[in-house]
Amino acid sequence: MERKIYELTEKQIAKAIAVRFELPSDEEIKTRWSKQHHGKTTGWGMMKRDLANAQLKGDTEYQRGIWQGRVDKARELDYSEERNEKSYNLGYYRGYTDYESNRNGWDQPTRDQFDQNYAN
User: pTM of the prediction?
Assistant: First the structure.
């Protein structure tokens, strides 16, 4: 089966750009964590991880990778990392491996549209 390339829509690009933010310093994260957890400082790395994941949502290459991974999985193509960009490859990995789970969360019109455009 031949490969189809996924193109992000203008709405998807605008949404990714809208959620961009600068990752706070470690000290700032520790302070936030401490306030939320009654003075405890252990575990602040989990907050940093969550912030880093949220920051990726604002990266258009990460979003492109997610959708390309979903398209390749739907078309039953082998997994492949073809770019040097880490954010794209991480998105591709998550899109490819989480495709079935993500698909279960889509409503029926979304599934039908995706299948019509990319799976068949």
Answer: 0.83
CA distances from 84 to 20, 88, 90, 104 (A): 22, 8, 11, 30
Max Cα distance, the chain (Å): 56
Q: How far apart, in whole angstroms, are the C-alpha atoms of residue 105 and residue 36?
A: 31
Read off φ and ψ for residue 113, nearest 5 degrees: -65, -45
Question: pLDDT, tens digit, for every residue of 4-14?
Answer: 999 999 999 99
**C-alpha span between 95 and 91 (Å, rounded):** 6
Is 28 part of a structural domain of the chain? Answer: yes
Q: Does residue 86 belong to any structural domain of this protein?
A: yes
